[in-house]
Fold each of these.
Amino acid sequence: MTVVKAENLVKDYGLNGQTVHALRGVNLEFRGGDFAAIAGPSGSGKSTFLHLAGCLDTLTAGSISVGGRNVAGLSKRQLALLRRHNIGFIFQAYNLIPVLSAEENIGFPLTLLGAGKQEIRDRVAQVLAQVGLLGMEKRRPKEMSGGQQQRVAIARALVKRPALILADEPTANLDSKIGREILELMTRLNQSEGTTFIFSTHDQMVMDHARRIIRIRDGQIESDENK
């Protein structure tokens, strides 16, 4: 099953009166269960691709489909609903809500989906166990380490059981030991849940864990290899 498909994808930005060509005719396809890393230097276009695949930005030309649905031309509301139902996000800055506890942060996406209180409690407890955070339900982000906060972010991404999880530099703010533990956790979840993971990274450790490595430079794909 194809989860994301980009065809001749182009993204241009205006910056200080100049046009920045972030993506230049990218063709990529990701299938269910992929565990893939898009690697490249800063400014190569890897994060731009994730933002387009995650319906966080709009393309300039070409097409990109998520879950078989072409996102070009969708309204802001339609894009928001597509994100809400189909995509989980893991950011390098965690993006947790500071006034909410771990369980409240994790359950928030389900609240947006209109899930009942008992379903939210059950599913939050399940993912807390999956990411090894049982006993920390009531802690707020400031009471947790960076690695624990990233586990909360992973649990939040998983709780709605999306087909696709996009992880933008997920190890950037973690030391190597914690980063390796987080990657091993995501590998296990990919294998047990069949969730597609797409990373943007320049971290060799992420590339070592990925089963597919796509190298991008100056907005164009240089190579696409399966291990």
Amino acid sequence: MSDDLLTQCSLCAKRVCSSEHTDEALDTCPMVTSKDILDSALAKYAKPEFFDFARNASIQEAQCHAQTPFGKTMIHPRVEETYLFAKKMGYKKLGLAFCMGLSNEAKMLTEILQNKGFEVVSVGCKCGAVDKGKIGLKPEEKISQKDRFEAMCNPIAQAEILNNEKTDFNILVGLCVGHDSLFLKNVEQLTTVMIVKDRVTGHNPAAVLYAKGPYYRRLYQKES
């Protein structure tokens, strides 16, 4: 595909995919450029391992909305939405992979899930107590910037421990950028994300997108 036909749904103003007017799709729309992929993807939903999951996810999406005299409103926060979905799927054992910097949040989430009847297996990111030197970090590249023990995050171990525990479904809480990727690459079970780490915004990365003005102007400056 040429550069001028790159799929860029995020820049599309027509959004015909949310309507029946697909004949108005732009030339760069994947409904035009990737019909074979879309057909192949749709066929996968018929597989048993995806059908009920996709169906219940859409049901849960609808149940997060409620009609009021003032219009549509949202009624389930992410924590509640997650355990309600897990109940719909009949899951019993949930895996929790968390950043040690969010240990308190992981503890509270564990208590909530246990109170709702789930067995929870949780693994912290520093599991294994492996020094960052094992992956080639120099002292000046550590957080402490000193030549002393500093435990590396170990997302591959987190994934493999949850694989071994044969959890039904996993939840990510605050793994760093990149560490979350390694976890998702190595985990066998389907996984959702509860908290995305953002040390600056109190773990609300969307705040930067809403503060486009003077606070984060630097993010929108083009680099040469």
Amino acid sequence: MKKLLILSIFSVSLISCDALKILATEAATDVLSAPSSAEAAGGLKDALKQGFGNGVNVLSAAGGFNKNSAIRILLPTDAQKIADKLRSIGMGSQVDNVINKLNEGAEAAVLTAKPIFMDAVTNMSFTDAMGILTGGKGAATTYLKQNTTSALSSAFKPKIQESLDKVGFTSNWADLVNIYNRNPLIANKLNPDLNGYVTEKTLSALFNKVEEEENLIRENPAKRVTDLMAKAFKYADTQKKP
């Protein structure tokens, strides 16, 4: 009887040891290691492709700017004085046509963003990738702003110019503004560079949309649709400051 009791205790001990080993193994498995440089870069590349791809697709669609009151580009505040004057003499439809063309130009310009974004992602270093992964909301968008704004601005302007030229507006606008500015009674002069104004508005709308998409990926694991994205951002989740 005593031997049987000892054997039983010994058996239980072995089972307990085995159970502890299993638990220890599972616990070790649950400890998430940092992704390799290739995994971090790959996960970010997937996320950025998804984020700016979705953003570009939304904004470049017909009506992407024109039908969205939150980002629809209107004339500059100062230029509204001239627009109001034109409306007062029965040229309201021409003013509306110009505003429509501003926004169509923005929609066309956004399409040029994808290869520029891709180039920035391709040239991303491991240090950049890890910094972006653990940088929190908007970190990837900030990286893109720093590395693509100049190239995007150069790419956008011809598209916007082309749209403005379709209504014969650019030269007429510049002439009108210059005449307006020559009036000695006008203290606040207007900027005749409407293209630059529209480019700035377009860039702002694009980066806001990309940041919105980026933050969805950071906040919602269901948005991480590739294995690399899932691993990279799961690791990023563990690095969040409380």
